[in-house]
Q: What sequence folds into this?
């Protein structure tokens, strides 16, 4: 693959269950599994926790391609999921997915808003509605993030996923046209009109009070 990858060493470990996991951890390693439709069966492996963290210590984080060496046989994988202790943050288990260069894979990309919305210059408030989006991409083309240009947005307008120009090789497969960002009217302006209307009858009714008695 042309994309830069991290490297990770792993050991074959046959077994499953709590007893198996304890044995692996007693060796100072973490139990893990490699899944993939091109594999005859999932691979049970053991990896070093620090090495896993180092492998994904890149701008792409979980979307970093990893060359996984399992007993001399190499697989290109993504870290799909992991479990860690809620208190110590110790890595307890990892799931990897085997990927192929010419087949798209489903990943989540962080959404980053760029540009200054026209509506903000006019006094509106820009709100980001979605922080990440699920996309399909060739493994070697996975970007670090999805940048969304909100410059054209006016007050009360919204940017949806179908409005976003996606990078080459990236597709979105969803029936929901997610809202990415919206420029709203400042709350003070929204409230001002009803408050003024409510104050008007009070002002009109106050004048006769001088002659009342």
A:
């Amino acid at each position: 693959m042309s994309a830069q990858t991290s490297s990770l060493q792993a050991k074959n470990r046959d077994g499953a269950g709590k007893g198996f996991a304890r044995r692996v951890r007693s060796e100072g390693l973490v139990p893990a599994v490699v899944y993939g439709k091109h594999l005859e069966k999932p691979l049970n492996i053991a990896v070093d926790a620090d090495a896993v963290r180092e492998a994904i210590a890149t701008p792409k984080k979980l979307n970093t391609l990893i060359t996984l060496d399992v007993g001399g046989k190499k697989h290109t994988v993504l870290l799909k999921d992991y479990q860690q202790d809620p208190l110590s943050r110790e890595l307890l288990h990892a799931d990897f997915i085997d990927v192929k260069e010419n087949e798209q894979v489903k990943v989540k990309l962080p959404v980053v808003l760029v540009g200054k919305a026209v509506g903000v210059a006019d006094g509106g408030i820009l709100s980001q509605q979605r922080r990440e989006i699920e996309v399909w991409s060739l493994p070697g083309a996975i970007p670090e993030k999805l940048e969304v240009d909100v410059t054209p947005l006016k007050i009360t307008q919204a940017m949806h996923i179908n409005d976003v120009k996606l990078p080459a090789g990236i597709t979105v497969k969803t029936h929901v046209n997610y809202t990415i960002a919206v420029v709203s009217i400042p709350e003070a302006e929204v409230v001002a009109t009803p408050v003024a209307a409510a104050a008007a009858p009070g002002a009109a009714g106050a004048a006769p009070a001088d002659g009342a008695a």
Observations:
- Residues 6-100 form a domain with the Ribosomal Protein L25; Chain P fold (CATH 2.40.240.10).
- DSSP finds four helices and 13 strands in the chain.
- Residues 187-206 form the longest helix (20 residues).
